[in-house]
Give the backbone structure.
Amino acid sequence: MARPGRWSGALSPLPTQSLTLCTAALGGALLSLLHVPLAWMIGAMLATAALAWHRPVAVPPWARPAGLIVLGLGLGATFSGPVLAAVTGALPVLLAGGVIAIATGFVVARLFTRLAGTDSRTGFFCAVPGGVIVMAILAQEAGASVPTVTLAQTMRVLVVVLTFPPLLGWLAPHGEFGEFMAPRQPFWWPGLLGMAAAGLACAWPLRRAGLANPWMLGPCALAILLAATGHLPSGVPVPLINAAQVALGANLGTRLSRSFLLSSRRLAVAAVISSAVLSLLLTLIAWAMARLAGLPVPALILGMAPGGMPEMALTAKALELAVPLVLGFHLTRTVLCNLLVGPLHRLGLRLGLL
């Protein structure tokens, strides 16, 4: 029998994959009926995790890439010409936010290292709010423990996904950021299928080049180009975005098997506590930056949030919180992580900060 957990997808029988996706969809539908923000992703994740506690779970290998392609197209379609100009005008704030978010890793790394009992090198890569894949790759290059970094970064994403959408959904005003909001595009099947095929073609060379998250970045770049030049052939319908949420949520849920949660309890507790501290710190910084720059506070909170780029961009889309600005923050941070995390880690070791 296939092992439970995310890596069993390619080897699991079709009934296991079908049961997992059906359970995930039911969980998403239930939370949608309860009007929970980001319902389809959170519901799918929790339902899959509950199933994983009792039996093997798996999603088809194509589910997450397909969901990311749909998400990339849907997010890129929000970048009309004026919106792209507004986001470009905020580039200094995006760069400052990315550098500050990475620098918070120094603040949280000591706390995480002490709580988890890891070495300082591994603790740093566990604490920096980068993407799971990006930080795992950088940790491997630096000689840190990749499994520990992957687990800690996964737990951080889970904590953020479960807290930020509900809080912002209840507290933040929606749809009041005109310069960062593009009009919805009409849906046309032939245009959408053409975009999906072209998006897949854009993603493939990025994947071959080893870029993190190519399935989202390639289609997103394509949709931004089409939307900004006024050549977008179709919008992405809400049901497809919801299906993408289910795919991503189910993928996250498959990681929460019984063995995953029970085998590293000390590490999991350290990840949850440090994630809460990091989230509070970045929220306060985002509030101050928004006030100084005259930008929408909820969008900056999501942009600075230590969650993954797909999850936070989906939250912004679900809550209508200036999606292009939030995505701009996370794209900038992804680029800066690849450029700066390694040198900053070496500098921190030299200066005794780690």
User: Anything to note?
Assistant: The chain has one domain: 6-351. DSSP finds 16 helices and no strands in the chain.
